[in-house]
Amino acid sequence: MAAAAAACRLLRLAPRRLRPLTGLSRLPTPLAASSGWRRYCAAAQAAAPPPTASAATGETVGEFRRRIRVSEVKGGEDEGAAWVGKELTVRGWVRTCRAQRTVTFVEVNDGSCLSNMQCVLTPETEGYDQIDSIATGASVLVEGVVASSQGGKQKVELKVSKIILIGESDPTSFPIQKKRVSREFLRTVAHLRPRTNTFGAVARVRNALAYATHKFFQDSGFVWVSSPIITASDCEGAGEQFYVTTLLSNSAEGGCLVNSIPSKDGRVDWSQDFFGKPAFLTVSGQLNGETYASALSDIYTFGPTFRAENSNTTRHLAEFWMIEPELAFADLNDDMACASAYLQYVVKYILENCKEDMDFFNTWVEKGIIDRLNSVVEKSFVQMSYSDAVKLLIGSNKKFEFPVKWGLDLQSEHERYITEVAFGGRPVIIRDYPKDIKAFYMRQNDDGKTVAAMDLLVPRVGELIGGSQREERLDYLEARLDEANLNKDSYWWYLDLRRYGSVPHAGFGLGFERLVQFATGIDNIRDAIPFPRVPGSAEF
């Protein structure tokens, strides 16, 4: 019930297509001036009935009212023309303020869309005496009437009758001005970068992709499962995990002393730790997801994962989000079909519901991104075996930085050549990889050399989705754990799934930030997440 309720809440929070509201002649009247700053945040409270002699006194909680956003005014096909003559209240942050002899133009953005609301003030405007304190970055509340704009950049503007300065901003120190700055600099002020056009658009598209993810799986009959963040197992078997421990006490001045860490036979004594054994931040929710797929049939997880890989590249994060569905009674073909349908669904969703932001990316970030994404939606995906992909790469006579040889993993340059050049921009799925380069849980094929694994490749990114049919046979899985030198006792519960009602099942994992990169054209993954965590940096 909790999972279903959470999913329903997510559906109710869907990003709406930009369109003007109909049937509204005016907004709710603001509260009286005596109510102070709270008038910006809440509707008037309904009057409470007089208390009886035995009843406790108190006030009724006010009704929650959805605010009108700039996106709803300017986002329709008429760009706000239907709102002309109607009253409007805008709350937001000042982008620019231009004072002329008889009029002042203040551009206000409320975060709902890329477009600002141009607010026109005159000396007769109530609150005009604060105009010298209204600078870029300041927060304001403006009230007025929507009018046709005399300028050519927008169809409508707001003739302001009243302006209130809510929060000042020092123009000499505010780090985000009208002049463009580098994304490298903006990472140093990640708490303010959402106020820029680029990162505001990234945030909205990321939100739309998350909503579309839940909608796709919910509409397809999947159940959302919350997988644990703390785990005692290593899903990938790579050992690149963050330890979770309480053995390092900060109570001592200057931090924990090394000789205060419990040890036994020269090693850390994990039996004295919080969990009584080594514990880690999870690298994947897949193994836990398989347990629920073994009872609920089709499930998906969507949450944060962690990798302690000391890699400072544009493709790696220490903390990232993963989408991981698991399908019971399914094989690799079902897995590939699900991955393809999911990707086409979410890409189509943002193209239809984030048009202004996507136009921005198409103009300023990656020219042609809309055509590239449309190709993903419209073209059928193709599949080929790993062996055939190696032959294709060797036969291309192209000089790659990394060698191409059967038994070696494909690198990003190989993957991009296949999808961008060999198949002309079409998404490609590579399947049946050598078992020695894949994880222990992947089902071994009949040839004994390969496993039923697949990677979905897309232009500009390379691998976007990785999945497999899981090994449902107990003896094969135990043998693979031995080959990987993994302790079977740590996976006793995972092995139990093969002892009690095992079924063929499959799933895949998708790094959400890579999906955001793919959908926006942003070239550095650190710009696809609000607060990037990378080696040497855990600010904010």
Automatic annotation (TrEMBL):
<keyword id="KW-0436">Ligase</keyword>
<keyword id="KW-0067">ATP-binding</keyword>
<comment type="similarity">
    <text>Belongs to the class-II aminoacyl-tRNA synthetase family.</text>
</comment>
<dbReference type="Pfam" id="PF00152">
    <property type="entry name" value="tRNA-synt_2"/>
</dbReference>
<dbReference type="InterPro" id="IPR012340">
    <property type="entry name" value="NA-bd_OB-fold"/>
</dbReference>
<keyword id="KW-0547">Nucleotide-binding</keyword>
<keyword id="KW-0030">Aminoacyl-tRNA synthetase</keyword>
<dbReference type="InterPro" id="IPR045864">
    <property type="entry name" value="aa-tRNA-synth_II/BPL/LPL"/>
</dbReference>
<dbReference type="InterPro" id="IPR004364">
    <property type="entry name" value="Aa-tRNA-synt_II"/>
</dbReference>
<dbReference type="InterPro" id="IPR006195">
    <property type="entry name" value="aa-tRNA-synth_II"/>
</dbReference>
<protein>
    <recommendedName>
        <fullName>asparagine--tRNA ligase</fullName>
        <ecNumber>6.1.1.22</ecNumber>
    </recommendedName>
</protein>
<feature type="domain" description="Aminoacyl-transfer RNA synthetases class-II family profile">
    <location>
        <begin position="204"/>
        <end position="530"/>
    </location>
</feature>
<dbReference type="GO" id="GO:0005524">
    <property type="term" value="F:ATP binding"/>
</dbReference>
<dbReference type="InterPro" id="IPR004522">
    <property type="entry name" value="Asn-tRNA-ligase"/>
</dbReference>
<dbReference type="GO" id="GO:0006421">
    <property type="term" value="P:asparaginyl-tRNA aminoacylation"/>
</dbReference>
<dbReference type="Pfam" id="PF01336">
    <property type="entry name" value="tRNA_anti-codon"/>
</dbReference>
<dbReference type="InterPro" id="IPR002312">
    <property type="entry name" value="Asp/Asn-tRNA-synth_IIb"/>
</dbReference>
<keyword id="KW-0648">Protein biosynthesis</keyword>
<dbReference type="GO" id="GO:0005739">
    <property type="term" value="C:mitochondrion"/>
</dbReference>
<dbReference type="GO" id="GO:0003676">
    <property type="term" value="F:nucleic acid binding"/>
</dbReference>
<dbReference type="GO" id="GO:0004816">
    <property type="term" value="F:asparagine-tRNA ligase activity"/>
</dbReference>
<dbReference type="InterPro" id="IPR004365">
    <property type="entry name" value="NA-bd_OB_tRNA"/>
</dbReference>
